[in-house]
């Protein structure tokens, strides 16, 4: 259930080791979902070649690590504040208390997993929980937005434009989700080239029979 970000509260961890395992499972569930969305996003971007899981992971770490550090710093700081404000640990003196309980509670809330055995009981703590929940949601959107923004070189941009001019019917250059839904053979006039001349119109079949364009855009390693 934790791996699918779903809990009912009938089974709860009662030791520090159990809570550590829950935190790891929640971390995996949260980032697996983000990675799956990232793979879909990158595969639809224009000019991408050879989209792989490891390539997306490396790019993800490269562009999103500042927000990653900021997010988990906020989780720890809010854990300290929430623990200081008020935490009800199910009234069980045998369960772990203190700073570790605050981190466990905040971690679960930030990763959309909560069993209900640890709760806040006053307005201040509940407000902070709401802030933490919103941060966990917005962090997902921010990471995906950062992944979608690409800084390509002028040379890469020219190669993509050149490939589009040479093979306008090669829809793979515009992303896997871009497709032409009209007839199989469609005559398309090429855009005006820099020297003022016009290329001849080509059909979809002719473009597909042309040489495959490789290395256009940012391309994942």
Description:
- The protein is an all-alpha fold and 221 residues long.
- The chain has 6 helices and no strands.
- It has helices spanning 16-43, 53-85, 99-110, 123-148, 154-166, 204-209.
- Helix 1 (16-43) packs across helix 2 and helix 1 packs parallel to helix 4 (123-148).
Summarize this entry quickly.
With 221 residues, the protein is mostly helical. It is built from six helices and no strands. It is elongated.
- In N-to-C order, the SSE pattern is HHHHHH
Helical stretch count?
A: 6
Number of strands: 0
Distance between the termini: 34 Å
Unreliable stretches? 193-221
Tell me the major beta sheet.
none
| Helix content, binned percent | 40-55%
What average pLDDT do the residues reach? Answer: 74
List keywords for this structure.
mainly alpha, disordered C terminus, 53% helix, elongated, single chain, 221 residues
Please write out the topology.
Blueprint: H1 16-43, H2 53-85, H3 99-110, H4 123-148, H5 154-166, H6 204-209
Helix pairs in contact: 1-2, 1-3, 1-4, 2-3, 2-4
